[in-house]
Amino acid sequence: MANMNRRCPLELRTDGDDACKSACDAFGKPEYCCNGAYDSPAMCKPSVYAQMYKSAWKVREEALDS
What 3-state class would DSSP assign to 16? Predict the structure, then answer.
């Protein structure tokens, strides 16, 4: 299995783990954690980090299927 951490932005990288931190864990801001003023589906939209992860996961899944 590929190390997904290599595709993580620097600010989401973990030490010695094969995963990325979530933007919520990394920054703790309501817009990334979907809480406070962002606690509804209408207000909590996928962040650029979520979109990057989803794209990387799709590429990984396609590679595993081939």
Answer: coil
